[in-house]
Queue: 4 jobs
Job 1
Amino acid sequence: MTELLNPLNTSPVVWLLTLLSAFLVGMSKSGIKGIGMVTIPLMVFLYGAKASVGILLPILVFGDIMAVYHYHKSGKIKEIIRLFPFAAIGIVVAVVVGNQIDDKQFKSAIAGILLISLFVMFLNEIRGKKESLSDKLVFRSFFGITGGFATMIGNAAGPIFNLYIFSMRLPKNGFIGTGAWFFLFLNIFKVPFHVFSWHTITLSTFHLDVLMIPGIIIGAYSGKYIVKFIPEKAYRYFIFVIIFLSSLMLFFK
């Protein structure tokens, strides 16, 4: 019975914090953007740098499926096709790099990517009008390759790709739907590399991820309700501070 509910034989505290991470992923997919980034350093603390990326990935896929279910009609598939090849290049480069570095270096890489992503989030926050990036090949290739690398190393490409998609000036549902489809395709594309190259997704880790699905669902519906009552600006700056402090801790832990 213990193995059925706790396949990795972790402590109850680690199991509950993993469930909390799943809950936060659900909230981020339901519209509370940014809060999902908090799960990245938390999972690193719980499982180690490289292993945490593989454990978190199926949780993200489950969350993406929920987002696509709600917004599938609003996605712009053409835009996804234009960006995806560059993201795939970034993912393949990250797979090679990830096989050459140890866990400490992997942790530093995740921390660095988080700080870069945080800078992108903050820059996007304080800018005025956003210019369209999707029509320019140089921007499309840069964002695709950089985001692909970031998503493979640390599941941390959300701010990068969200900025790119936001620059398309789509209506709200179009922005959410396009992002939902893109991240679903991207995260599924990463799964074989985790299984066959990095070996960070196993039957036991996937078993744990399946147990986290209720947390994702509850988080998604909670997020849709809670987001109505949170002051947007105060919330976003709170997330900035949490991610910044967590990233710094990864460098020194």
Job 2
Amino acid sequence: MKLKIGAVLTAAAGGGLFFAVAPNGDKTRRRRLRVFQCRRFAHRGLHDRESGVPENSLAAFEKAADAGYGIELDVRLTKDGIPIVIHDENTMRVCGADHIVADTSFAELRALTLSGSEEKIPSFEEALERINGRVPLIIEVKNGHDTAAICPAVMRKLYLYPGFYCVQSFSPFVLKWFRDHEPNVLRGQLSFDFFEPTYDRGEAWPVKFAASYLVENVLSRPDYIAYDIHSRSSLPLIVNRKWFGTPFASWTVRSRTEMEEADDRGDIVIFEGFLPEK
């Protein structure tokens, strides 16, 4: 009797986990995703600091679009509610000045320059105007913000955008917002192995588990999974790829060897530091 109860509980737990990690399986949405699957995406634009083209700059986006590469970029919200394109929550690494983006106004941030160049931190609106639908966009909405503030601010700039785009985030709550309020927008769940010591950000064990093993899919029901190319062996990843046929994006691909590895799996390639074939 105990064995039967144990088997039932194990099956129930397995079924629950199977349900939790499932993506959005809509075939129409899968077809819409194909435009992203046949592109290479320049991570934060086609940047090269040595030649004066910083990451997430208008110059980097111009270079990527001119070369025919898709563009991956990051969006944060300023103190006065302006969506801007920057990866870090602090401007020190890219601007050499110590400002928390969320605590600083757009005007103050515009006084800074990127990586010793003449480039400024662009607003999200400026980036969209510069790219102007020439290539597909992968827009990472950064977590750490009030979801009810950043998500509508991003969408207000996208309503009239003339090109293809999708959104992705590490935050399942960001993607849940898009699922509930903008269901037509394609969405990708970003993740990696949060248990890797080099990636340790001090999160609680349940948070690490949910993020690493894609349990957050129960909230976001993503159209694709964007996972670190170096950590891909967990069971939920295998289940998503083999059982559900979930599309994947590999980040960040930094060599042709890694690109070939991603290509062999049929992944969307988000690259940096070299020029792949288009």
Job 3
Amino acid sequence: MTEALIFVISFIASFLFALGGVGAAIILIPILVSLGIPINTARPAGLFYNTVSMAGASYHNIKHKRLDFKVGIPLILSSFFFAVVGAWVSPSLPSRLILLLFIAFLLFSSGMFFLHRKKAVHQNRTDTPYISLSLTGALAGLLSGLLGVGGGGIISPLMLMLGYSPKKIASITAFVVPFSSFSAFLTYWTMGHVDWRLMLIVSTGGMAGAVLGTRVMHNHLNPQTVKKILGIILLGMAIKLIFKL
């Protein structure tokens, strides 16, 4: 029963977060812990889940030629390296501090989607500011390793600040998250136990949910709707963690 429940939760979470190209580990990890799974097992499971689910969403974007590789590469390189750094540092930090980082991360991301405004002419940027994108990837990778998430919740609002359209952001984030998630997962694997059965369950549900969510986002939602959905999801998770704190 628990395994079936985990599969269903993985599918739903991945579907919702794929609407904005954001990995769902941020919600999956606390759910797994609430079901009695140790945090050291939940983190690599969440990261592997992000890797598989967002890889599925990214494949769908590449297949339909929605992905701008030039924008994605600097994000991938910096996030991949700094995710390893974050994963190595994370075990030495107090659990309360990790929870506070979760909350700050969610509130920042949600606030950016609800409050940030750009003139329409700047919302379809096509150039590649390598330094800004590399710094964005570095921050996202560091948080990915520290928290056990993919970093999409940081990449998305920061790219929005840089002037990229929400749908382009969703495609780029879905492309970057698997790399940062996988590098952090490998690091956690070298430091502790990995439950492969658990990862198979959440990854299977994640793949199906991510592909469906990406298809719905591109075919049925406009950019403003995508932004609102992301903001609501992230704010809801922040409130949940505040009550837990």
Job 4
Amino acid sequence: MKVVASIEARMGSSRLPGKVLMDVGGKPALARLVERLRQCRRIDDIVLATSTGAGDDVLEQWGHSYGLAVHRGSEADVLQRVVDSHLAMQSDIIVEITGDCPLIDPEVVDLAVETFLANDCDVVSNAHVPSYPQGTDVQVFRAKDLQKVAETIDDPAVREHVSLYFYENPSLYRVVYMVAPRSLQAPDVRMQLDYPEDLEFIRRVYARLEPDHGGVFTTGEIMDLLVREPELAKINAHCIEKTAR
């Protein structure tokens, strides 16, 4: 069973254009994300799924320079882009990651994959029952299941939000919802990159923790930092995510 993580990323963003290559402590935010995924024990490979738009030429170039497999597809039809990425990679199991998560936790990703492999289920997710901090999202499912959705469902929201169909059809799919341990339960804390305030928060977290922990510190270590310096979480606390529908 080949387990492959796909990173959905593009340079266009209405709130923070070019965010995935913005500097975080001397490295692009996307490099921070990739470094973290490369620490995962349960992932066999990584593919960067970006668009064919001219603005994303720089992402293809960066991905190849960073040793990543890169697949380019439709900017609007993210579902098909991800499916085609995994067909090219010959993936059996997809680990869906979005490019705005430079604080993703390798331990949480590995736990999601292990949970999927150990249970009779179709999807494992920590993203749809709020418990983990925002921006530590990981979703695991079979490549063949996502391919079937892409072949049969034309709903624009499903084409944009890759795994949405699984959650909206509980009679068809067995979903295991991961709930964070008490020490990591902070669903109101934002650790993703969508707004300038998010970038400021992430930069400060790296500045505080990287000198002592290296670039791949855990969510637990971030939460410990926020206990010591609660004002950090206030930087982007007012920012709000848009819903899928």
